[in-house]
Amino acid sequence: MISGLNKQGSDDPPKRVQLDPSTIPAKELEDFVTSKTLTFFDILGVNRNFVAHDPDSWQSLEEFRLAKQHIDSLAVVNDRAERAVKLMQDYNSSITTNEEQKQYLLQIVSEHRAKYPQARKALLVGDDTEAKKTV
Questions:
Q1: Average pLDDT of 107-129?
Q2: What is the SS3 assignment for 135?
Q3: Which residues of 26-39 are buried (b: 16+ CB within 10 A; e: fewer)?
Q4: 22, 32, 69, 105: which sits with the fewest CB atoms below 10 Å from its CB?
């Protein structure tokens, strides 16, 4: 991995890794590391000076221990879509646990959206500035 940090990274990396699945068995960790990987530490506000030392000595370096402690304290978060689904499930459960009432509520919301497609709080309470923007 340390040797990978010497490879020049792209100034405009792709948002997602595009990888041919047939090449995965031949890949090593350093294939996914470039000099741009160090921005991970910058984003987290972690001192990355320990990277210049031999990895065998990292455990004895105070900056490594602080960085490790900081990174270990971060909460791992699921993919955004999974989070959105979970949030919606929690919200739905907070309204009612009765499935019939949930279905009725969804029908009411759907009918309301069809009847008032431009429904915004400003329009409903009579805020003229917002109403003029949508007309």
A1: 79
A2: coil
A3: eeeeeeebbeebee
A4: 22
Query: Which of 53, 72, 91 lies at the terminal end of a domain, its last residue?
Result: 72
Sign of CA dihedral 37, 39, 43, 45: positive
Mean pLDDT of all residues in 70-87: 80
Domain count, the chain: 2
Q: How many CA atoms lie within 13 A of 99 on its CB side?
A: 0
The pLDDT tens digits for 31-52 are 878 878 888 888 888 888 888 8
Which residue, 72, 89, 120, sits at the end of a domain?
72
| Structure tokens, 4 | 């990978």
